[in-house]
Amino acid sequence: MICDADVVIIGGGGAGCSAALHLAQRGADVVLLERGLIGGQATGVNHGGVRQQGRHPAELPLAIKSRAIWGRMRELTGTDAEFDPCGHLKLARSEVEEAELLRWNQMAAQYGLRPRMIGRNAIRADHPYFGAQVVAGSLLEEDGSANPRLLAPALARTARAAGASLLEHHAVADIAHDGARFVITANGTSFRTPILLNCAGFWGGEIAKRFGEPVPVEPLHPNMLVTEPLPFFCQHNVGVVGGDVYLRQIARGNVIFGGGRGEGDASVPVTRPRPDAAFAAMTRAIALIPRLAEAMVIRSWTGIDGQMPDVLPVLGPSRTTKGLIHAFGFSGHGFMLGPGVGAVLAELVLDGKTDVKLEAFDIARFARQDAGDDVWKTRL
Amino acid sequence: MSASVVVVGGGPSGIRAVEQLVSAGLRPVWIEESADGGGRITQRPPAGFKRDARALYGADAGRARRLHGTLDALKSRCDWRPDTLVWNIRPRERVLHLLQGGGQQSELRYDALILCTGAMDRVVPMPGWTLPGVTTLGGAQVALKSQGVAIGAKPVLMGTGPLLWLTALQYAKAGAMPALVLDTTDTLTKLRHLGGLLGNLPTMLRGIGLNLGLRLRGVPMVEDATPIAIEGDGAVRSLRWRDGAWREHVTPCDAVAMGWGLKPEAQLADLAGVPFDFDATQHNWIVRRDAAGRAPVAGVYLAGDGAGIGGVEVAELSGTRAALALLADHALPVDAVMVRALDMKLAAEAQFRQALEQSFPYPAKLARRMPDATLLCRCEAITAGELRAAAAAEAPEINRAKAFSRVGMGRCQGRVCGPPAAEVLAAALGVEVQAVGRLRGQPPVKPIPVQQVPA
């Protein structure tokens, strides 16, 4: 069977589903191919942070664009995916880290963001649950969190209602290109399209390689834990400079926290949380919030995201193949960025341009990268 | 043999498995989650309790005495580790993660592993099932055997199967006369499979004996009945139910125990990567294994009710059999005659079990018709209606429905609500229950504390 489409998207995560939605809403004939279930990997299993805070300056405009879409998620999809603008509080555990917070805040001011520093005394007074190691914090009130399990399915549902065809259990078996059109074979059907969006997360690297653009993408398995419900005490989504632990308490009382890496095999795919990473995250979480000691962990999990060496995504047109646009390797930031990435992709396809600068995300950057250290390199 | 052999579970199957390993000269690590072994049906009272075995176990007294004697004799001949939870398995590394005494974390490498993880009651959530005073038949039994207390002075016991009668008779004998024994199965269904039950005449006669015992004591019993709601405000006051002619009744009571057969506790097998198949007769997902108990995962063996419900007799036989399989796989001598005899007994027991399950079927329709307002997942306080809404939001299988609705996401990780949730979802989607799959296991299999663990 042969099926023609204006645009084919590979990958049913947040970016792919958002692209399908934005394209379909503007009348494009879209097919999305997902190997498993919509939102089954990185988009569905992450911490659920919706934060601009701590982003690399090159990524901030994209984060700001995405945050605006998060703010109208209910209007867009009929559900807010439990998005709660509860504020992201980034903590410093040393004076060096405190200086790091200040440096980022000054930079972010150029982008119109106004995070608020909370000093040593104020953080004790306002957040008595923090341990002694916390010396300062910076709160970006418009940031927050959402339920990762709900985002991609909500975008997918709305995309379908707008006429897009989102096909689950459609693993791509082959991609051919005849110079004008792509022919993608999945589940026994050939999909022909002039435009192909590579939103395949970690597996996006394979697709790029297929078109002569190999990139150093590595699998990233966020190691996540959740406690039983505790009396509510912590309003904000909490991170730390360096990102070795992050946590948030949901309204039901459970504390979701993570840090370090799980393990997996992307070829199956199968993933597992790692106990050593869990213990390290526990130790750090207790140091941050001593009352977490002896709370019971009821579940742990992980999944597969793609991580780039510079912790920035590959986002923009292919340098080898006309009609191919990459959007993968979100390095742990894809849940927050996904809605915005989809909008950018729709603009690239339908308008040939977008208002977000994409130079830093160029797929060709790895071929020419000098080894210089990037002072803004952040993790998660 | 220098291999590291680990047995998880100190119930009847674990006891018999360790017995074989020890008599072959091995010194296995033997892990038990509770403070002592003995399992559930032959649950031991804490030290110092005075009720004698006959009062505690009835016709099973001899079996209990033998099992407990073997258990105690084996403890010094292996690395016995009570009060230890295995909360995770990494099958590729062959590592178990242990939590000892509720706080001490450690790892244990194994070359061969026998999982004897037992079973728990299958319940069907219904209005009022989360009231204080409502428990499972197994819970009611454990209260009596372990603590010498009854769940109430005039409890209602409901469900179907031998455990219903056994618990009811134990309660009647202990002086807590049941207000009602409500059986969801009709007489005809029970009689229809009588032929198959003849395969194990002693067990069948014991079952009939239990039933007669209840009648002789004048315990009120109904068959072909349907529970509607457990009523009360802060405590159990009554049970509302329908008889076979669909007439409504209200039975005053002060506690309720329910159970419709058992479901395997197979979370560790799941984490070990053992595949599951749906057994239509048991109406359970059962781990895949050969007749001797070998899982299709290298080094993993399965025995007892955790490997498919069989009861205490099968648990003992399958524990012995799995240990013999392990020994043979490690090129140690095994008694071929004994193996053949075990295989024949296990095959006969499997036929008996088939008839037993057919005689006392799981009332799937009770779960499938659960009212929307019924609390289905008590850990996360999710109603059946909320799960049905998730089904409508394109959840073709139970893990996706869990992701949308939080059913099975709480403290029990779906071990209580998982099977009835699958029924509700399957009914909403108009498919057979096996089509919606089973909840995937995730570590920890039971809660573990957030603590500073040295690297």
Please tell me about this protein's structure.
The complex is a heterodimer of chains A (380) and B (455). Chain A is of the alpha/beta class and 380 residues long. Chain A is built from 11 helices and 24 strands. In chain A, strands 9-3-2-13-24-23 form a 6-stranded mixed sheet, sandwiched between helices. In chain A, strands 1-12-11-10 form a 4-stranded mixed sheet, with no helix packed on it. In chain A, strand 19 (263-265) and strand 20 (270-272) form a beta hairpin. The model of chain A has no long low-confidence stretch (mean pLDDT 95). Chain B is built from 15 helices and 23 strands. Chain B is globular. At the A-B interface, helix 7, helix 9 and strand 21 of A face helix 14 and strand 23 of B. Strand 21 of chain A pairs antiparallel with strand 23 of chain B.
Which pair of chains forms the biggest interface, and how many residues does each contribute? A-B, 29 and 26 residues
Taken from the alpha-carbon principal axes, the silhouette of chain A is globular
How widely separated are the two ends of chain B? 31 Å
First and last CA, distance of chain A: 42 Å
Mean pLDDT of chain A: 95
Q: What is the count of β-strands of chain B?
A: 23
Rounded to an integer in angstroms, the radius of gyration calculated over CA atoms of chain A is: 20 Å
Rg estimate of chain B, integer Å: 22 Å
* Mass-distribution shape of chain B: globular
Beta percentage of chain A is 25-35%
Figure out the total of helices of chain B.
15
Oligomer: heterodimer
Structural class of chain B: alpha/beta
